[in-house]
Amino acid sequence: MAKELKELTKRSVNYSEWYNQLVVKADLAEQSDVRGCMVIKPYGYAIWEKMQRILDDMFKATGVQNAYFPLLIPKSFLSREAEHVEGFAKECAVVTHYRLKTNETHDGVVVDPAAKLEEELIIRPTSETIIWNTYKNWIKSYRDLPILCNQWCNVMRWEMRTRLFLRTSEFLWQEGHTAHATREEAEERAKMMLKVYAEFAEKYMAVPVVQGVKSETERFAGALDTYTIEAMMQDGKALQSGTSHFLGQNFGKAFEVQFLNKDNKPEYAWATSWGVSTRLMGALIMTHSDDNGLVLPPLLAPIQVVIIPIYKNEEQLQQIDEHVKPIQDKLRALGISVKYDNADNKRPGFKFADYELKGVPVRLVIGARDLENGTVEVMRRDTLEKETVQLEGIEAYVKQLLDDMQQNIYQKAVSFRDAHIYECEDYEEFKQKVKDGGFFLCHWDGTEETEARIKEETQATIRCVPFGVEQTPGTDMVSGKPAKYRVIIARAY
Amino acid sequence: MAKELKELTKRSVNYSEWYNQLVVKADLAEQSDVRGCMVIKPYGYAIWEKMQRILDDMFKATGVQNAYFPLLIPKSFLSREAEHVEGFAKECAVVTHYRLKTNETHDGVVVDPAAKLEEELIIRPTSETIIWNTYKNWIKSYRDLPILCNQWCNVMRWEMRTRLFLRTSEFLWQEGHTAHATREEAEERAKMMLKVYAEFAEKYMAVPVVQGVKSETERFAGALDTYTIEAMMQDGKALQSGTSHFLGQNFGKAFEVQFLNKDNKPEYAWATSWGVSTRLMGALIMTHSDDNGLVLPPLLAPIQVVIIPIYKNEEQLQQIDEHVKPIQDKLRALGISVKYDNADNKRPGFKFADYELKGVPVRLVIGARDLENGTVEVMRRDTLEKETVQLEGIEAYVKQLLDDMQQNIYQKAVSFRDAHIYECEDYEEFKQKVKDGGFFLCHWDGTEETEARIKEETQATIRCVPFGVEQTPGTDMVSGKPAKYRVIIARAY
C-alpha cells in the first residue's frame, strides 16, 4: 500500500488520472462488473452517510417529509410531459419481462418469453412522473397543499461514458418533489432549496459555490427554471453540484392534478423538484485533495483523529495503550471520532501514508519520549504541518484545530476559486484562456446560437446567470450584439 | 375522515380486511399504479426511518459497516449457485434494453430494438451474487477477513399476489453480507444477527418473537442454515419477521473467493447474509393495533404526544396557546416528540379520532376549565383510558406513561402469544385447531414428506425448530414415526 501510494499520479501531471486513482486507492468506490455501475465501499459510504444525515436534517427543518415511490415507471408515463420524455427516453433501462427460466441445456437461465410485460417499465431516471401520478389522488383542495416530499433512493441513467461518482449509470441521490397552490410559493420553494444546497456545500463540504439560474438550453427537461450551484474544481472546471427546478404547472397539467382554490375554482398545482447525488462526493474529493491523497473537511470525515503509537517493544506499547485510553475518552466526550491504530502488523510509516491517503484530518503520534515529556506530535492533514504539543488539554487543542481546518480548507478553496474567475470581453482571449480552466464572466446576447457556437468551438458551456453579481449591460463577445447581463461560462464535468 | 374512520372493518369481522383498510386510512402506504409496487407515505416512512436508525446503530455496534452495491445483476451471476437461481429466477424483473425512442406516430415512445443488451440484467431480488463477485477482489488473505458489510436498499421480487408491506414486488430492506475465515466465526455471526433482530423486535417494536432454525424446505435458496424470528399476529398466524443465513462456502465456491489462511494455504471464504424489510411494518401494525386504528409502541411513534385545545373563542385559544408553549418545551427537553394541533378548520372530535387512527401514544387535551384548575386530560392510546392530571410535573408523568405503555403493549402481546402456543400430539386435533390460528409445538419426524402433507392438508408450515424450548423425543403426529424434537407449525403470512 505504501508503495502503491507513491504511484498516485500527481495532479499537475494528469488531474483526471489523479482523481480516478485516488477514488480507488482511498477505498471510496470501484467499478463493478455491471457496466457503468459502481460499488461504494464502506469508507466512501461513511462520508455519504454523513452528508445524508446533515442534508436530511436541513430538509426537515424546512418542513419536508420523507416518503418512498416505486422504482419502476410505466413507459407511457414518460410521454405525458413532452420535454421530459425527450430528455430521458434516450438513457433508460427498460424492464420487458418478469421471469427467467432454465435453458434447454440446463446449465443456465434465459428470459421466459411467456413472461413479457404488456407495458414495458423503465427504471426511474428521476421520479416526477410517478410522483405526480400519485399526487393526483392526494390533492383535492388548497387545504391539501403544500405537499413537501423527499425520497432518498437510487436512479438509473444509461450513460455511455462513466466516471466514479461524477457520472455513473446508477447513482444514489435525494429527490424532493413539492406541490403548491400558487406560482409564487413554488418559486420561493425552488429558491429556498437552492439556498439549502449552497449552505450545505459551503458550511459542511467547505466547497464554495456560485448560485445562479440555468440558460434555457441547460434547463432540466420539463422545468421553467433550473437553479444551480456550480463549484470549481482544482483544474478550473465547473462541477454542477445540485439543482432545484421550478416546474410551473407542467406536471400538474400532464397528470391532471387539479385542486379547488379558496374561491372554489379548479386550478392546476404548481411544482418544484430538487436533487443532489453521490456526485457531491466527486466535488468533495476534487476540491480539497492533494498529491498525497484525500483532504476531508473535518465535519464530514468518518474518522476525525487517528492516534498512532511508536514503540520498540511490547512493554512500551502497553504503556502507550494505557496512556492513550483517557485521551480517546476526552476526545469522544467532545463528540470527536477517534481511531487508535495499534495494529502490530503494519509499520508506522505505512500507517502515516495510509491515513494521509484517506484524508483523516488530525494525526496524533505518541512515542516513548512523549510519555516521558507529557507531549504528543500533532499533524494536520490540510497543511501537513507537524507540531509537538502538551498532552494536558489536548482535547481542546484538537477541537480548535478541527474548527480551524474546516475554515482553512474552505478559505483556500474560496481563494482558488476567486483567483480563477475572469471578466472577459474578447472571444479570442476567451478561447485561449478557457483551455486552462476557470469561470469566465461574459456578456451574453441570450441566444441559443451563441451558446451553441461557444460550446462547439471551446467545449465550454454557460453554467448559469449568477446571483449576487452586479449586472450591467454590455456587448456579447461572440456575436457583438447587445447583452443584458453576464453569464458564467466554463468547461464542466 | 371521522366518517371514514367509523368504516374501519372490525378485526373480529374480517381481520385481513381490517389490516388492508388500516394501512391506507392511517396514511402509512398505498398501492401505486405500478403492479405490486407500493407508495410509502410520509407517516409510514417516518416509522420506517425510526426503525432504520435504531437497527443501523445496532449493526454498527457489532462492527458492521454500510456500503452500496449495484441494483442490476448480470443474468449469468444468478446461475453460479444452483439453488440460488432455482429460488429466485422465477420472480425476476429483467432489463433487456437501455433506450426508448419516439414511435412512428410521434405520440409516444417505444423500446429501441437497436439498444438490446448483450446479456440481460436482472433487478436484484437479493445481492449475494453481485456482492460475492465483488468480494472476490477484496479477499486475498485471512488478514482481509472478516468483511462485515450491510446495505439499505430496494429489492424486487415479482410477486403474483401482493399486500401492502407484507408482500410487495418492490420492497425496502437491509441486507448484511459477511465473509469469514472459519466456519465457526460465520455461524456465530449468523446467530448474532438473529439475536440483534430479536432484541430489536422485542425492545423497540414490542413484538415478541420465537427464535429458531428453519427446516431444509424453508431455507433461503443457497443457505446451509436459515435462522428466523417468527411473530404471532392477532389472528394467530405467523409472520416471519427477519432471517439470518449461514451460507457455508456456497458463494465462496460459486464466485471463487479464496484466501490464504495462516498456514498460507488457500481456502474458500465462509459467508452469512441477513435481512429485515418493510415487512416489519406489517408485523408492527398487526401485533398491536385495534378497531380504532393503529397502536404504536412509543419508541417508534413519529409523534409521541399530541396536544389538543378545546376552546369557545379566539381569546380562549390564545390563552391555551400560551399555556401550551412551556409544556411543549418541557416535553421536548426530555426527548419526547410533541405536536400541538390548534388547527382551526377541524373539530376536536375529528382530531381525537384521527390521532387514535394514527396511533399517537399520548393525547393531552386542555380546555378552559383546565386553565383554571391547572390540570390536563391525559389519554393513553393502548387502553384508551383517560385521566385528569395536574399540569405541574406533567413532563415526568408523560415520560413514565410512555415507558409504561411500551412495556404494557409488549406484555399484552406476550400474553396473547403464550396463550396461543399449544403442544399437540394428535393430527386430527391439529387440523381442527389450526384453522383458528396459533403456534403448534409438534413432534416432527424430520421428513419432507410429512412437511408437505401438513402443508397440503392444512396450509400450515413448519415455521422453525424453536430455540430455548426443552426438547424431548416423541412420535410424529402425522406419520407415527419417531421424532427427535418438536417444531412450531402454523399458518403464516
Pick out its properties.
homodimer, 493 residues, alpha+beta, BirA Bifunctional Protein, domain 2, Rossmann fold, Translation Initiation Factor IF3, five-stranded mixed sheet
Q: Could you describe the 3D structure shown?
A:
2 copies of one chain form a homodimer. With 493 residues, chain A is of the alpha+beta class. In chain A, the strands form 7 sheets. Chain A has an 11-stranded mixed sheet, with helices on both faces. In chain A, helix 3 (42-61) packs across helix 7 (183-203). Chain A has 3 domains: 2-72 and 134-288, 2-Layer Sandwich (BirA Bifunctional Protein, domain 2), CATH 3.30.930; 303-404, Anticodon-binding domain (Rossmann fold, 3-Layer(aba) Sandwich), CATH 3.40.50; 421-490, Translation Initiation Factor IF3. The first copy, chain A, is globular. At the A-B interface, strand 2, helix 3, strand 3, strand 4 and helix 4 of A face strand 2, helix 3, strand 3, strand 4 and helix 4 of B.
SSE blueprint and pairings:
2 copies of one chain form a homodimer.
Chain A: H1 2-6, H2 15-25, E1 29-31, E2 38-40, H3 42-61, E3 65-66, E4 72-74, H4 75-79, H5 82-88, E5 94-97, E6 100-102, E7 109-111, E8 116-123, H6 128-138, E9 147-156, E10 170-180, H7 183-203, E11 209-213, E12 225-232, E13 238-248, H8 250-254, E14 258-260, E15 266-268, E16 270-277, H9 279-288, E17 305-309, H10 314-333, E18 338-340, H11 348-357, E19 362-366, H12 368-373, E20 375-380, E21 386-390, H13 394-419, E22 421-423, H14 427-433, E23 439-444, H15 448-458, E24 461-466, E25 474-475, E26 482-483, E27 485-490
Parallel strand pairs in A: 3-9, 17-18, 17-19, 22-23
Antiparallel strand pairs in A: 1-2, 4-8, 5-8, 6-7, 9-10, 10-16, 11-12, 11-24, 12-13, 13-16, 14-15, 19-20, 20-21, 23-27, 24-27, 25-26
